[in-house]
Write a structure and sequence with these properties.
Blueprint (H helix, E strand, L loop, with lengths): L9 H12 L12 H10 L5 H14 L3 H5 L3 H8 L6 H16 L8 H5 L6 H11 L9 H10 L12 H7 L6 H17 L18 H4 L19 H14 L6 H5 L5 H13 L4 E2 L5 E2 L3
Antiparallel strand pairs: 1-2
The chain binds a DNA duplex through helix 2, helix 3, helix 6, helix 8 and helix 9.
Length: about 290
DNA sequence: TACTCGTGGAT
DNA sequence: TATCCAAGAGT
């Protein structure tokens, strides 16, 4: 006997869970404008919430509009970025702010395609700004969402690499109601961040634990190809970090030999300094010393 | 597509 | 102590 398929209400269960369990993060509070949301999203790219919070507050107090940030020097922006990591994000955010100030009347665009055209704003961040900053119904897919969908929908233990169909997967689960659909986008991320985590998921507290394809399949272990672990010790990233650390702390241009002390391998050291110069994270004075770009 | 790009807390 | 991994983007 066939029956009319009941619409999938897992989206509503996740939104209800979010309403009672979500963290009180400053960029989610009422009255936070799209610029503040944009800054938070760029800072949160690959960087944990706990480290972003204090820096985000400082940035918004210091540069409350795109034009304000665009007027700052790269050196000030790099220093204010502190130790969030991946400092190229700070330069791109400043560049994006300059485009917004010059071409969009200092108002953060609300169109996903326009947002995606800005430096440092990709598929995820563009939709996050449109959804969280402007209240649009938009599918928003980050690593948390891919993991939740992999388990809840596809019955797999781990997230697959990002693909275009991710947006369709998650859009299909969103509640019909507009306001709830908007909240759903952040709610799935929160579920992945708090319960459906990469390590040991807390399925006992999950609002869809009885409707999760992965659990229903017996929580099978990951059986895909071995994922390559990201090394850090000894990499160019570590060397670049050390070089930049010296320049962030310096109050005046530093000599070459001061940079030479941070790493023994001269070939690698030179390569990294060159790459920092190419990235415009470091500048050289006419007399051959090194500084953050002024 | 696969790789690169920081940092530091959690496990 | 070593490994994992965190609201991605650019090339």
């Amino acid at each position: 006997m066939t029956s009319t398929p009941r619409t999938d209400d897992r989206g509503d269960l996740i939104v209800d869970w979010y309403d009672r369990a979500a963290r009180d993060l400053p960029w989610r509070r009422p009255g936070v404008d799209a610029w503040a949301v944009l800054v938070s999203e760029v800072m949160l790219q690959q960087t944990p919430v706990a480290r972003v919070e204090p820096v985000w507050r400082e940035w918004l107090a210091r540069w409350p509009s795109p034009a304000a940030l665009a007027a700052a020097s790269p050196a000030d922006v790099i220093r204010a970025w502190g130790k969030l990591g991946y400092p190229r994000r700070a330069l791109r955010l400043r560049e994006a702010a300059a485009v917004v100030a010059a071409e969009h009347g200092d108002v953060v665009p609300d169109d996903v395609a326009v947002l995606e055209s800005l430096p440092g704003i990709g598929t995820y961040t563009a939709r996050a700004v449109a959804c969280f900053g402007y209240g649009q119904r938009q599918p928003v897919v980050d690593t948390n969402v891919r993991r939740v969908v992999a388990r809840m929908v596809h019955g797999r233990a781990e997230a697959a690499p990002a693909r275009a169909t991710d947006l369709l997967d998650i859009a299909a689960l969103a509640p019909a109601d507009h306001d709830r659909a908007v909240r759903f986008s952040v709610a799935v991320m929160e579920l992945g961040a708090l319960l459906c985590v990469a390590g040991t998921p807390r399925c006992g507290a999950c609002p869809v634990r009885d409707r999760c394809a992965w659990r229903l399949a017996g929580s099978p272990a990951y059986d895909g190809p071995a994922r390559k672990v990201q090394k850090f010790a000894g990499t160019d990233r570590q060397v670049r970090g050390r070089l930049l650390d010296v320049l962030r702390a310096a109050t005046a241009p530093v000599e070459q030999d001061q940079l030479d002390r941070v790493w023994d391998d001269a070939v690698q050291r030179s390569r990294c300094l060159d790459s920092l110069l190419a990235d415009r994270l470091v500048d050289q004075t006419p007399d051959g010393r090194f500084t953050l770009p002024t």
